[in-house]
Amino acid sequence: ARTSLTGPHARFAERRGRILRYPVDVTPWTAHPDTPDARDWADLAALAGPGGTIGLNTLKEEPPEGWEILQRIAGVQLVDESVVPEPDAEAVRLGRADVPEMLDLVERTRPGPFLPRTVELGTYLGIRRGGALVAMAGERLRPPGWTEISAVCTDESVRGQGLASRLVRAVAHGIRERGETPFLHTSAANTSAIRLYESLGFRLRAHPEFLSLRAPAALPPTGEPREAAPR
């Protein structure tokens, strides 16, 4: 998340000291040092607010007292090795007007975090049947030179028709057109999704851990202010 928030997504960045995060209605991910110190945890708590929640990626140490781990997911990261990108004639560009339907599809299919402003992070494509949105995929994190494909989901009524594969290839086409490399994440337990992505030409690259944490109900003391992060 850090290189996204200091690069292509800098306009979204909320920061305090060495901590950066996306707005809470965009995506839950927060950027932090590999080993946060006491001041970093205080800054995380200040950004989250008392009892607020944040998303972190792979902590090397357990959070300090007062923090509650709400969810801990073993994940995988896959990168484009031999994906054949291809635009899709049936796929339509989704925007703010489509957000209620997108949120409804996400609620039914549970592909991972998708919030009211997530659509602002990049291109989202969908397929409609009978006027209803039944499948979608889009772009989320954007480290320089890379773009994450996310929110890949298909309604149960149309599964088995290859819509997810088509949309992943279509989103990958737009990413490649910009000269960037697609990558994606999923749960390590989601073996069917991993098989699908590998069949499309993605290669397993890393095993991150995704955490959802609740901040302390009372903000910890912050001590002396740290020099502001460069903009």
Protein architecture, described:
- The structure is a single chain.
- The chain has 2 domains: 2-67, no CATH class; 77-206, Aminopeptidase (3-Layer(aba) Sandwich).
- It contains 5 helices and 12 strands.
- The protein has helices at residues 2-5, 38-48, 99-109, 163-177, 191-200, and strands at 14-16, 19-21, 30-31, 53-57, 68-80, 92-94, 124-129, 132-139, 146-154, 181-187, 202-206, 209-214.
- Strands 4, 5, 6, 7, 8, 9, 10, 11 and 12 form a 9-stranded mixed β-sheet that branches. The chain has a 3-stranded antiparallel β-sheet with strand order 1-2-3, with helices on one face.
- The relative contact order is 0.23.
> Strand count, sense and closure of the main sheet?
9 strands, mixed
CATH class of the largest domain: Alpha Beta
Taking pLDDT < 50 over at least 5 consecutive residues as the criterion, the unreliable ranges are 227-231
**What average pLDDT do the residues reach?**
94
The amount of helix comes to 10-25%
C-alpha termini separation: 16 Å
Give me the number of helical elements. Answer: 5
Q: Radius of gyration, rounded?
A: 18 Å
Q: What would the CATH topology of the largest domain be?
A: Aminopeptidase
**By helix and strand content, what is the structural category?**
alpha+beta
Q: What's the order of the H and E elements?
A: HEEEHEEEHEEEHEHEE
* Proper CATH architecture of the largest domain: 3-Layer(aba) Sandwich
